[in-house]
Amino acid sequence: MSSKILVIGAVNIDFNIHSDQPYVLHDSNIVHHQKQVGGVGANIAQNLANFGMDVSFLTMFSIDALGIFAKQTLTHKGILIDHCDTMSLPSNMYMAIFDQQRDLYLGLNDMPLVDEMTPRWIKTKYQYITSFDAIVLDNNLPQKTIEYLVKTYSSKRIYIDAVSGVKAPKLVNIINQVYVIKMNHAEFEILFPKETVPPKTMLLVSNGSQKITLYQGDNIVHQTPETIEHPISTSGAGDALFSGFIYGLESQYSLPTSLSIGAYAAYKTIHVKSSINHEVNINEFLHRIK
């Protein structure tokens, strides 16, 4: 029987922007853009749904047109959002500006709805959250909300995405109390400047095109990503890595196999413009590595 997974986090309207020419600061630049439903939490929920998992998403939507668009998009993908709430604030927005190598050059976010996902609001969802086997948290949530969730649902497998170097320090108080934390190398150096890792919590650490490292106490597993000759966009690659790893663990695969699934999902995502590659076929990949 597959796990029931609840993702709690942000849903944004993402605008991915890139230019074919170097940017000229303090001037107008000709660019191409793509609009999509995103946010770390929403991306992970979409990936897990694409992988065939039973996934629900708990977030706060806006009542505006973009909020309606986000609801319709997620529902169409089979993600259960029936316990989400709506507010009259504007939809969360994230603008990702990519350089000519399709790496993130500048990220801008305006996320008023996330601040409304307070411990008081989360407490009204107690019975609902209790029904799940595993919980995935997006570190865009307020720090007090994350700490409340980790303390209240300590008996469950809790996965957290650190999100960014600015937000990673919010996790300092609960590092030893969760199942897995996903971060990039810069976030790892912020949280563990002396490289003294927690004894039980697994740390999934990405480093761009370099090797992916999984720490579990004294046990360290490495995964070297496939070489990417012509990347389309790195947007969503980290979310895909984490989603694939979650899929592997919740499907009872070994740590090395789960890491390989995550690396495969990230590799496939880098080959599309969107933050989600809807053509990722986990079963095909697993058959290939048997």
Automatic annotation (TrEMBL):
Keywords: Kinase, Metal-binding, Transferase. GO terms for molecular function: hydrolase activity, acting on glycosyl bonds; kinase activity; metal ion binding; pseudouridylate synthase activity. It comes from the Bacteria. GO terms for cellular component: cytoplasm. Residues 3-277 form the Carbohydrate kinase PfkB domain. Gene3D superfamilies: 3.40.1190.20. Pfam families: PfkB. SUPFAM superfamilies: Ribokinase-like. InterPro entries: Carboh/pur_kinase_PfkB_CS, PfkB_dom, Ribokinase-like. This is Carbohydrate kinase PfkB domain-containing protein. It comes from Candidatus Xianfuyuplasma coldseepsis.
